[in-house]
Each structure stands twice: as structure tokens, then as C-alpha cells.
Please model this.
Amino acid sequence: MTDLHGKVAVVTGGASGIGAATCTLLARRGAVVVVTDIDDERGAAVAADVGENAVYLHTDVTREDDIAAAVQTATDRFGRIDAMVNNAGRVGAWTYVADTTADEWDASFAVLARSAFLGTKHAARVMREQGFGAVINVSSVAGVRTGFGPHPYGAAKAAVLQMTRSAAHELAEFGVRVNAVTPGGVATRIVGHGAGLDGDALDASVDSVRRGLATFQPIPRAGEGEDIAAAIAYLVSDDATFVTGQNIVVDGGLTLGKAWPGNYRAEADAASWAGQEDRSDADRATEPDADLFAGHVPPVLTGEERHGGSDGFGGNARPVGGKGFHCVLAAGGDDLGFHETGHHGVDGDAPPSHLERE
Model:
């Protein structure tokens, strides 16, 4: 286990999900953590749970002054900054490229790419003088593969990866390392937030996401915030002093492809469908998932009302289904679309190789 005693880290987006898990793990391993977020209640609660090794600071990552203040707070209070974890994020709306507004594009880049640049910039200013430090930028599989996020989200996350490499090249001679961690499908509130949920519904969405992601990648479980936090902790630690400009993908094998041909689970699931086309929707909903839109369409198809599949982006299910995919609509199911209320496939039914999501 990596020892982080004596290290000081700033984590953006630390109030929930990957950020909260990272704050908790870094502190558990000995680091002092500055938890930053715009959700003051949750952020303060994370810092309180961590204990004396953490402080909370309100930080809007779209404001350069806020990020500069977070770095300054760490150095003023603790005398140094060993790690800057640029994690804050948003998904944004799933829309066709022709329907994506410039404002939506700019908003995504402000939170995802510009904020990571600002965190890197202000951490580098201090770390360069120190002669040591590690910047970790949280990207996404949407930044290395298409179909895993909205257009602005994927483009911004790809930009984060290139900036990581560029900054790593520049700062290496000063003893400053810059790396990225790329999560796959992780059970956090960000998916529900992207579907427009808030309050209790947003909190409850995490379990739906976890169930929905259980067969989304070759390793048959959803990713957890702790999985990503462990990779970040490694990059912060002295075990990684010769590692820079790298992207550690923590995705359960998602970028390898959805399922190996002849996959045992897929074969078993397909066999269970043989001769059972007349099964009720309720019965089919209990079947395991053998494939999910051939691995290239997001698990959550959301519309603009009730976040269901009857309109908006979710309305794409019918034309996609007509192209040989089996798509699940969630107009009357749960708000994230993981419980089906209707489906479209080839000739109105799904072939065994395209089983519906529960």
C-alpha cells in the first residue's frame, strides 16, 4: 500500500463520486487533503468524515481565481503542495452534433478542459519552485473512444489527455510529473446529473447506474470511485517518481471491446432466449445482459421529459433499433433508463445476441 504521509493534495470535485473517494483514500494513506467543490454541504461533510487530515474550500473550477486560491490555501496552511488532482466534471446533454449548442460546448470545456488547464497551471507555478509535485488529470474513456459520452464531453476529455502529455514534457526537468487517469463506467452521481436529476432522485440514481454498468465491460461489475482513487494514489506516491506523461486507463477492460466472441455468459444468455420470443417484458427484464448496443451506444438514452426514451435523444432508439440494435426505452421506467418499458429491434423483436438491459 502506498504511503502518503507528509504529502499535501488538492482535489477538485471532492464532494462526491471519484473526488470524494480520492480524498478519503489519500487521507487514509497519510496525506493532508484540501477538498474543493461548489457543493458546500457535501464537500464539508467529506472533509469532516476524513477528519483532521482534510479541510474544505469552496471552489468553482470555472473561475481561475478560485483555483489559484485553492493552491495558495494548500501552500499557506501546509507549506507545500505535492499533488493537484483535477477531477471536477459534468456530462452535459446527449444531443446530435447538429443540435449541440455553442453554449453547451463552451460549458463542457469550461468545467472539463479549462479547469484542468487552470489546475495544472497554478500547481505548476508552485511545484516548479519546489522542485517536486504531481498533477493528475481525470479524463474518461469518452476521450479515447467514441460513443461513451456527448460530443463536447468526449472532445474535452481528449483535450485533457493531450494537455497532460504536453505539460508533462515541459515540466519534467523541474521534477514535476503530470499524468492522467481515465475511468470507464463508474457508479457515481454524474450519470444521474447528466440525466437532469437532482435531490433524492440523484442520490438514488447511483444504485441504478451500478446495476446498469454491471455487464457494461468485460470485468462483470461496475467501476467504483475507489478503483479510480487507487490509481490516483499510486501516481501521487513516491512509487511513481519515474512516471510522467502517461494515461492509466481504469475501465474494467471496456476499451478492449464489449465482450469476447463466444463469451460464456453471452452464449448462456443467448441460449436462454431460444424459443422464448413470447416471454413477457417482466420475464425478459430478469435476463442478464449479453450485449449493450454493440458496445457503442450509451446505456442511458434520455429524453427531455422524465428523462425517458419517448423524445429527445432517447427517441433515437427506434431508428437505431431499425439498424439491428435492440434498444430499450425508459419513458415509464426509472429515470435513468435502466428498466425497460418497451423495446425495438430487428422487425420489432430482438435477436438473441442483442438482449435488453434490465
